[in-house]
Design goal:
The protein is of the alpha/beta class. 50% of the residues lie in helices and 11% in strands. The chain contains 10 helices and 7 strands. α5 crosses α7.
Length: 229
């Protein structure tokens, strides 16, 4: 029996990459043109940004729960959220959720431990990098971490929110992310978590100074595994 995957979307680019990965890599498990059933609900990104700007995690949780309920009604068996930042609100969501969730940072941490990494650099929005989403998940798997300095956090946030979520991929922004990752390497990191689901659209193992942990695709693959297990 294949389980029905529910995607709680936030930004279009990250949600689309996750959905495409499930559909594309599903064929490797299930055969040509085959993948598990998938439903997705995405409220306006502006609603999430408004809540994040005012530090309203309860508001973020309510948006996530609204999606969760709609996906449960559509027949989903479990949920994923291809957005790292709003995972800050997941502890507020889980006690009231109609369905179980996979946690994106837990999937990244499990993969980091599996590959034998010891110290993971965290990239993403300022909301995410300033939070405990990745430190908590990494620590649970015996891993240490490093955050970019303040200037790099501001640069990364600007690129993500002004360009990547809008589908803009500028050469100078790719170079800026490469420099940020190089500085994380100088802090002793042996891998980098691409902790924004749009970062894999411009950074991967072919152009990164550190081995990458692609949060979007790792979450999609974990969902595939659960759906067909």
């Amino acid at each position: 029996m294949r389980h029905h995957i529910g995607i709680v979307g936030c930004s279009a680019e990250g949600a689309a990459l996750c959905y495409r990965t499930i559909c594309k890599e599903g064929t490797e498990l299930l055969g040509a043109h085959a993948h598990p059933e998938v439903s997705m609900h995405t409220p306006s990104l502006a609603d999430y940004v408004t809540c994040l700007d005012r530090g309203d995690l309860e508001g973020v949780a309510e948006l996530m729960l609204a999606s969760a309920r709609k996906l449960a009604a559509a027949g989903a068996d479990f949920l994923i959220c291809p957005d790292n930042t709003i995972h800050q609100a997941l502890p507020l969501v889980l006690p009231r959720s109609p369905l179980p969730w996979l946690h994106i940072a837990d999937e990244v941490a499990k993969e980091a431990a599996k590959r034998g990494y010891k110290r993971v650099g965290i990239t993403g929005t300022t909301w995410l990098v300033d939070s405990d989403v990745y430190p908590d998940s990494l620590a649970a798997h015996g891993l240490s971490f490093a955050r970019p300095d303040e200037a790099d956090r501001i640069t990364a946030n600007r690129i993500i929110m002004d360009e990547l979520v809008c589908g803009r991929f500028e050469p100078q922004s790719i170079a800026a992310f490469q420099a940020i990752i190089a500085r994380l390497k100088a802090k002793g990191c042996d891998a980098v978590a691409l902790g924004c689901t749009e970062i894999p659209l411009i950074i991967d193992d072919t152009n990164s100074p550190l081995p990458t942990l692609d949060s979007t695709r790792l979450l999609a693959r974990a969902a595939l595994t659960r759906a067909v297990a």
